[in-house]
Write a structure and sequence with these properties.
Rossmann fold, 6-stranded parallel β-sheet, globular
Length: 195
């Protein structure tokens, strides 16, 4: 295992799980799998990074203000917290997205850390060259992040057993996976990792 690898956990927040503002069907079923990945990569000294929607209450991203989505991921609310079953290490790097009223915050590459450093800068400082990506939602934030990572010359592994789609359109998540693979991402599952 190279120290140039990073596990990126995308938006595993309460609002996207059962009882949240924008629940994804059976979202919780992948959290134990993500926890397995966290343990695997953490014990191998890889960077562990988690993104979150961290929106202001008023943003053009929300349908109330002309956007496409119901209100979700509003900073400092219970819905914006990481799901309690997710076992993030104490030194996890947190990247917040969509913090300005005019920001969508889809891709992790649109986010910043607690010191206002861009996600790209965080990766460079940690010397990450290869990403393993899990979380929500396959056809939106996962796809945007994967495509941006490939555009920025990172090797990308899509953790097929640790992603979930919204499925507003039935085949959209499947098409998103095909596009990510066509652009250069690799698909793997937990059993594929070196033991």
């Amino acid at each position: 295992m190279s120290h140039h690898q990073g596990l990126l956990i995308v938006d595993v927040q309460n609002d996207f799980c059962r009882g949240g503002a924008m629940p994804i069907a059976q979202a919780e079923t992948i959290i134990p799998v993500i926890n397995n990945y966290i343990e695997y990569f953490y014990t191998r000294s890889a960077a562990i990074i988690a993104t979150r929607h961290w929106h202001p209450a008023t943003t053009s991203h929300f349908e109330t203000f002309g956007g496409l989505w119901p209100s979700h991921g509003i900073r400092d609310t219970p819905g914006a917290l990481f799901h309690p079953s997710l076992t993030l290490p104490r030194d996890v790097l947190i990247v917040s997205k969509g913090m300005q009223p005019d920001e969508e915050g889809g891709s992790a590459f649109e986010g910043v850390d607690s010191k206002d450093k861009s996600f790209l800068m965080v990766l460079k400082e940690r010397k990450v060259k290869e990403l393993f990506i899990a979380g929500f939602a396959t056809e939106y934030c996962i796809k945007a992040t994967v495509l941006d990572a490939l555009e920025n010359n990172f090797a990308v592994n899509l953790l097929m057993d640790a992603i979930k789609g919204v499925h507003i359109e039935p085949e959209e998540a499947e098409y998103a996976v095909k596009k990510m693979l066509r652009k250069g991402a690799k698909k793997i599952v937990f059993g594929d990792l070196e033991k």
